[in-house]
Amino acid sequence: MRPSVVFPVALLLCSCAQPGEQAGAPKSDSAAAADSALTAVASAKKETKGNKAREGTTKAALSERSGASSQDSTGPAKANASRPVDTRCGIKGNPVLTTTGVGSLAIGRSVDVVKGSCRVIRDVMELTGQGTLENVLTLVIGGDIYRATVTNGLISRITVRTPRAGTRDGLRIGTPLSRVAAMKGVKLAEGEDGLYLLPPTHCGLSFRFSIQSRWPTGRPWTIPELVRRHGTRPVDRIFVTRCVQSA
User: Contact at 8 Å (CB) between 239 and 206?
Assistant: First the structure.
């Protein structure tokens, strides 16, 4: 009886051992598969890092090229924008009043030329004392205000009210009447707003004084009477017009 019992037990032990050994085989295969998967992941990560590094380098190069190109294209534009525009109206130093005007502001010059070199702050139509409209420019030259009347696109009259602009012999705003009246051949001209002296040596220039154009009785002035009664009156405005020589 004992041998028959031992034999099945041995058989049972053998059959139990075989599944154990067979279960161990897959464990080895799983480790290999796991190692392979880890290697693949590590390789993929390395490749991704390499791609990102190359992509970063490419973007940096493109950005550098773009920045350089932008600087090259905007450099001249910035230089031109920062370059100051000369609005001195062709005047260097103190303005000299000539028989045609001041600097680039001259009788007979086109409005476009004047605006190209002078600072024009106003360009409007104004109503005159005679009820007509005039095109008048207001300019700033060296901090002083000048006014210019335009006719057919050309400067036809210039009004000077600053003492800074003077003739080469010193006639300017503030000059006394006696000095202007002492000039050879000076003439009188009556105006609605005052009295004018016109020296032939400064053809085209009219020197205005705040004096009644005639005596209260209606009699015109003479030069000696003006000097005697109003010799200290200063020039308060100078007009520049086209010089017209009398026959």
Answer: yes
Rounded CA-CA distance 120/194 in Å is: 28
Among 158, 186, 205, the domain-final residue is: 158
Cα separation, 97 vs 163, in Å, equals 10
Name the maximum alpha-carbon separation found in the chain: 176
Last residue of a domain, one of 129, 158, 187: 158
* Helix/strand/coil percent split, the chain, to 5: 40, 25, 30
Strands (E) in the chain, as ranges, are: 101-102, 105-106, 119-127, 133-141, 144-151, 154-160, 187-191, 194-198, 205-209, 237-240
Query: What pLDDT, on the 0 to 100 scale, is given for residue 100?
Result: 96
Q: The whole model's pTM is what?
A: 0.66
The pLDDT averaged over each successive group of 10 residues in the chain (247 residues) is: 43 41 43 47 51 55 51 50 69 93 97 96 92 95 96 98 96 98 95 93 96 89 95 98 82
In the DSSP assignment, the letter for residue 132 is -
Both 175 and 216 in a single domain? yes
Report the Cα 224 to chain-centroid distance in Å. 54
Coil/strand/helix, residue 184: coil
Q: How many CA atoms lie within 13 A of 10 on its CB side?
A: 6
